Amino acid sequence: MATMIENEVPQGLNADPMIPQLYRIDRVRDETDDTFTLSLVPENGEAKISFLPGQFNMLYVFGTGEVPISISGNPAMTSVLEHTTRSVGIVTKAMGLLKPGDQIGVRGPFGSHWPLNEENGRDFVIISGGIGLAPLRPVLYFLMAQREKYRKIVLLYGARAPEDILFKKELERWRGKFDLEVQVTVDRAASGWRGNVGVVTPLVARAPFDPSNTVALLCGPEVMMRYAVMELQKRGVPHDRMYLSMERNMRCALGYCGHCQYGPGFVCKDGPVYRFDQIASVFGKSEV
Amino acid sequence: MIHTLESVIREHPFFQDFPEKHLAFITGCAKNVQFPEKHFIFLEGDPADEFYFIRGGMVSVELVIPHLGPTTVQTVGEGEILGWSWVSPPYRWHFNAKTLKRTRALVFDGKCLRAKCEEDHDLGFEMLKRFASIITSRLDATRLQLLDIYGHND
Fold first, then answer.
1. Closest CA of chain A from B115, distance in Å
2. Which of B72, B148, B152 sits opposite A189 (nearest CB)?
């Protein structure tokens, strides 16, 4: 499994990718009751941040540990780095307690990226679920900044409940644009909710895109992506135009430690973004 | 461009590759309807003698739960089919269907279709194949909903 595009991929500010760079928390924004976005600035103040949508960093909470977190910010912003994560484990819970001014270690960016420059002139359908919207947020920034290069852009997003929807203000802003279709659905809702209820995958069947000229970007729970792939297949989107962001237990982020092995490769190095035809033989296999 | 009932039915994915000989009968069972917002299209327990192609708008399929009130289990939108209780006995709706916004639909006379399907098993099989596919998709979606895939363990 090879990375889709290996040239010009940003590989971090430090010469040694194992040494974290010092960053300072500039802002903490609560997205939901258990999900938050950290805005980070380099402590040396001079380094320009550079990443491609889909890449991730290793964030090191000193004294607690290090975890891989996708970059969720605007790729055009070179002064602030944004990461959105949910407090679920020891490290992310400790991360959630950090305050503006606190320091954090950053290694990266690592991994492959979504194919955006390579797919000018196509429709884009972006299918995400839960926290899976975070790695796709930079894609939306990127596409909207160069809107004229692309045809239809459709975002299908599934969340557990209305209160778990990420980036609500941005979704509302994007939905208000006539050149971006945003469809949000929730698994369960109280009576005040007036949007879709149900999982995200059935939305694929009626989404407005031309399957013969569409690139599909998927990020979310793996089981959601399995069903989304099936729906895209029914619509006739070819395997070599579906891209999935995979998640495994990444530790070193350089393909040395082997924790994130996925088939014959490593998610940290060959992924996290894969073209579906490159992983179709192992995708969904419980042993892999 | 004016769409006749027949062209709308013919172009709908549900009737893709549907035998030509049955299409005129199917069209004869259909008519256009419109519902205002917050309108109950059907109520749980009532006779289920129709099904609907939603052409615009959105419908909430809901269940009234004691102490919780009406709870939406699914929404059905443009291009989707609403209602399959007309296919199987006792032909009663299992849920309420309420419009969330103004909704346009084609309504099909399920009672008439049931009788015709009993008479003509070729037609009956064609209809059941298509409804089985919808029911399977909805079952898959419901299973995913039950898995709570966006919860804390995703």
1. 31
2. B72
Instruction: Give the pTM.
Output: 0.90
Task: Check B75 against A195: CB less than 8 A apart.
Answer: yes
Instruction: From chain A, pick out residues whose CB is under 8 angstroms from the CB of B60.
Output: 197
The pLDDT of residue A176 is 84
**Do A197 and B78 lie within an 8 Å CB cutoff?**
no
Q: How far is CA B120 from CA A275, B35, B117, B127, B133, in A?
A: 47, 33, 5, 11, 20
Locate CATH 2.40.30.10 in chain A: 21-109
CB proximity A188 to B under 8 Å: yes
Under an 8 A CB cutoff, do A224 and B149 touch? yes
Q: Residue holding tokens 């009932």? A: B5
* Domain regions of chain B by residue span: 5-147
For domain B5-147, the CATH superfamily is Jelly Rolls (2.60.120.10)
User: Measured between CA atoms, how close is A52 to chain B, in angstroms?
Assistant: 25
pLDDT over 50 at A6, yes or no = no
What is the C-alpha to C-alpha distance for residues A264 and A28, in angstroms, rounded to an integer? 38
Residues of chain A with CATH 3.40.50.80: 117-245
| pLDDT tens readout for residues A169-192 | 999 988 888 789 999 999 988 778
- In tens, the pLDDT along B66-83 reads 888 888 999 999 999 999
Does A169 touch chain B if contact means CB atoms closer than 8 Å?
no
C-alpha–C-alpha distance, residues A252 and A237, integer Å: 35
Is CATH 3.10.300.10 the right assignment for the domain spanning A117-245?
Answer: no
Looking up tokens 């909207």, which residue turns up?
A144
Distance of CA B8 to the CA centre of its chain: 16
Question: How many Å apart are CA A154 and CA A218, to the nearest integer?
Answer: 12
A235 contact B CB<8A: no
Nearest to B144 among A195, A205, A227 (CB): A227
The pLDDT value recorded for residue A8 is 55
- The superfamily (CATH) of domain A21-109 is Translation factors (2.40.30.10)
What 3-state DSSP class applies to B97? strand
Residues 6+ away with beta carbon under 8 Å from A174: A140, A144, A155, A180, A182
- pLDDT attached to residue A14: 60
